[in-house]
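Box S2. Input/output pair 1.
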Amino acid sequence: MLRFSSFLFALVSLPLLSATIIPFERETPRVDRYHHISSDSRASSNYLSRYGIDDELNRYWRGFSFSNRGPNDIVPAKPEGINYAFRDYFFTSDDHSQRETYLWITDYNGSGRTSDYFETILFFLPRENQMHVEELSDELVVTLGTGEEVIFSTKNKTLLSGVLKEEAVDLNPNRSLRKYARIQYSGKGLIIRSDAKGSDPRLTPSLQVLKNGEAPCKISSETFWTQEGHPKFKFVSDQEALKVIEEKCGVGYTISK
């Protein structure tokens, strides 16, 4: 039976020091044990803790998430009725593993149509620690997998500072012209970015590798994500993933690990 370690207790219940590095507990998540997924706000009213649940009701940590539901500069529409615009951030460190550590962003215009959920995955390399969050006064300090920080407003869940910057959710009524989440990364590493409308972005034909100072590099999604069943990132080792990126995108994409 899975038991929570003192490490996990500290992660979800106690404050963390800024820029604390929390090592991965395993290479690959035990997703085959999940019977269903769940979330709760017992650790904080400002974010949801996300879990996989097995048949014996044991919980497996999947990460944390929060939503910007406006109205503010990023989500200008007022949340009314059942459907309303939002931007959702899900910081994933599935089962405390290195393999499945990334950020999933959802932009939604509130139309009531599944096809208007604009999904984006940002996979950060190198992976140095589990993503985690600390509450400091009116700020949420999030440490990314690279060990770099981003700071959000506790009230609005808007980005205030750090290695990520955001622009407003695109509410263009013309779906074909509407843009995916406009998020820029200025950190030391690189990101593998996947986008999809109303579906899993890991299963799209192609994705982009992005690095400061370099033109976007387009690669087939199957290079990095398995394409059957529940998609998985193919590389546990950063060195192997970075080698493929350098081969396909050029030496300008080389980063030290």
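Box S3. Input/output pair 2.
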Amino acid sequence: MFRSSEERVFQVSDPSTVHTAPSRDLSVRYILPFFVATFALSWGLLFAMLQYPEAMTRFFGELSVTHPAYMIATWSPGLVGIGLVWAATGFSGLRRFFGRLFDVRVPLVWWAFVLLALPLLKMLGALLNGTPVSELIVLDPLGQVVMITGFMLFLGPAEEFGWRGVALPLMQRTMAPVWAGVIVGFVWAFWHIPAFYLDGAPHTAWSLTPFLIGVTSVGVVMAVVFNKTRGNLLFAVLIHWQLNIAFWPEAQPWENYLNLALAVMLVWIHRDVMLHRDKAETTVVPAF
């Protein structure tokens, strides 16, 4: 992967005039604006939904995960991340940034892990909750399950253009991947808190502390996959989608503790990368 570069400066015929060309990649100074803008946009919308539910319902319909304000709030990390990439690198950089979705040149073992690990943990968590084996895959009503699963591909995973697309590689320029994964994972988990008080959101049925543990742990798992697959953004999208697929059974709170165990195991196995800053993937926008 190509390492980041600061903005390129060149002189024109008048030596006293200096022009700044679009940067090839985002600089580390974009970390704070990303977090501030993400929270301002999403929490601002969710605050309006909490404080003015009647007005929001009158203009946009009943509060639910399909409510326009809720969807924009959910997409805010991705929208902010994409906006920063465009502002810093232009349309050319934005094209290269999205190109990270199509890098499939990774070992098959990572494809298997991304597609199978979290579903299996959800099933194990459901078993620990007492769910019968016959109900480990949700198929009824099939049409609704398929529709929700398809919708979830476009809801939560869009966040990854920000969390893992921008925040994680920038954080890894300043610290080892394990700590960057923990911090970004915790911020990602903490960012969900308003949804626990919002009628119509699934979070209202869950306990907050196990959720924070579980989502932070998934953030570390994503950091391992990100660094072992050359900054593959498609895998971050797929892992996020696996958290919300309607075919998998309800596994709260056990899935959170299983995710923690998985994160610790992966960090130990890949400690050669996760504990050393010099081996981190730090590119937001590839050079080519």
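Caption for Box S3: The longest helix spans residues 68-98. DSSP finds eleven helices and two strands in the chain.
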